Amino acid sequence: MHADIVVLPGDGIGPEIVAATLPVLEAVASRYGHAFSFAEHDIGGVAIDRHGEPLPAATLEAARRADAVLLGAVGGPKWSDPNAKVRPEQGLLAIRKALGLFANLRPVRPHAAALGASPIKSELLQGVDIMVVRELTGGIYFGDKTRSETEATDLCRYSVVEIERVVRSAAALARARRGHLTSVDKANVLETSRLWRDVTTRVMRDEFPDVTLEHQLVDSMAMHLLSKPRAYDVIVTENMFGDILTDEASMLAGSLGLLASASLGSGKVGIYEPIHGSAPDIAGKGIANPYATILSAAMLLRHSLGLEAEAAAVEAAVSSALDAKVFTADLAAAGQGVDTRTAAQAVVDRLA
Ligand code: NAD
Ligand code: IPM
Ligand code: MN
């Protein structure tokens, strides 16, 4: 098949991890007889510097026309002045919203060879396989904001339709997995969470009676996630809770540099990006872990291009590289670790 992939490297380690991932997609194309074309565009801080805005119209237009978007990361100290008029992160939020990407799939599957990198006891991690579905275009991220000399506000707002559609996405995934859905909210305090709980209960009762539903409050969920991670199958939650819980969950896998994501809507185009950020502390050193971005490319193959065998081959190649202890510094023993390109090449070699 032929596919047009828009590539948005962004800031910090973004260009490094994306440059390491494109050869993996090239290797898939040549092994399976596909043709992928890559068109690079600006987003985030680099777009502010070049065009004065974090999401230039040309970037959004290209993304709309593409089959899929591969994104690195945005943001960094250069653009982080709290009084700045424009911010890199606004570009990322705007493209998710504009493309209607309401369901952000973040799989958490600790790999046997990397268990030693996790601060959690290995026996708790065996067999952990969680899919977090984070609502991505609503909640406190997108409500009205105000700021005066003396106070500031961020409005958290959810509509029934916004909750229904993301719960349906999560429940469909649960149905194809182990048949269990955990909905995370703060219904003991927040009105939006009480709506979330009501709607979720109704959708599951009426449309997914075969999927078991459990409600969890977000604070105790943060604890259970580390103390009994095997108890979870699919977790669905609102935008900010999902953001925070998945960075926490990355410690089950051993590094933020291992967690991939797919941002999906009702159309074909999705954005595929690691869950981590631009990692300013290691940017420019060539040592970032590329596996999260490579695994995001696998999700791109699966969800936007329908290439399941190819996606599984990329995942198997990453697993095999991890089995061979091809570790970047975040996974390796102190003072050790291969560079970004070496890790990515190990994946390419296994696909050849
Ligand atoms: P971060 O995810 O960038 O980094 C947190 C820690 O994890 C750092 O120590 C970093 O070195 C490490 N890390 C992250 N990815 C890694 C990788 N692939 N390999 C090895 N180590 C890795 O979070 P932060 O420092 O809080 O944020 C930095 C900037 O990134 C901010 O501007 C933030 O807004 C932005 N950000 C962007 C995205 C995105 O583009 N999707 C996501 C999160 C944060
Ligand atoms: C993520 C990031 C973004 C988010 C920021 C950079 C806007 O943390 O993709 O997880 O909060 O969604
Ligand atoms: Mn985040």
From TrEMBL:
Q: Where in the cell is it found?
A: Cytoplasm
Which top-level group of life is the source organism from? Bacteria
- What InterPro entries does the record point to? IsoCit/isopropylmalate_DH_CS, IsoPropMal-DH-like_dom, Isopropylmalate_DH
Q: Where is the Isopropylmalate dehydrogenase-like domain?
A: 4-347
Sites where the protein binds NAD(+):
76-89, 277-289
Query: SMART domains of this UniProt entry?
Result: Iso_dh
Q: Name one GO biological process term.
A: L-leucine biosynthetic process
Give the GO cellular component terms, alphabetically: cytosol
For this protein, what is the EC number? 1.1.1.85
What are the UniProt keywords, alphabetically?
Answer: Amino-acid biosynthesis, Branched-chain amino acid biosynthesis, Cytoplasm, Leucine biosynthesis, Magnesium, Manganese, Metal-binding, NAD, Oxidoreductase
Q: Name one Pfam family in it.
A: Iso_dh
Q: Does the keyword NAD apply?
A: yes
The entry lists its GO molecular-function terms as: 3-isopropylmalate dehydrogenase activity; magnesium ion binding; NAD binding
What this protein needs as a cofactor is: Mn(2+); Mg(2+)
Q: Which reaction does it catalyse?
A: (2R,3S)-3-isopropylmalate + NAD(+) = 4-methyl-2-oxopentanoate + CO2 + NADH
Q: What is its main location?
A: cytoplasm
Q: Where is this site: Important for catalysis?
A: 141, 186
Answer yes or no on keyword Oxidoreductase. yes
Q: Cofactor comment in the record? A: Binds 1 Mg(2+) or Mn(2+) ion per subunit.
Q: Where does substrate bind?
A: 96, 106, 134, 219
**Binding-site positions, Mg(2+):** 219, 243, 247
Q: State the function annotated in the UniProt record.
A: Catalyzes the oxidation of 3-carboxy-2-hydroxy-4-methylpentanoate (3-isopropylmalate) to 3-carboxy-4-methyl-2-oxopentanoate. The product decarboxylates to 4-methyl-2 oxopentanoate.
HAMAP family (alphabetical): LeuB_type1
Description of how the protein assembles with itself and partners: Homodimer.
Protein name as it appears in the record: 3-isopropylmalate dehydrogenase
In which organism is this protein found? Luteimonas viscosa
Query: What does the organism's lineage look like at the top?
Result: Bacteria, Pseudomonadati, Pseudomonadota, Gammaproteobacteria, Lysobacterales
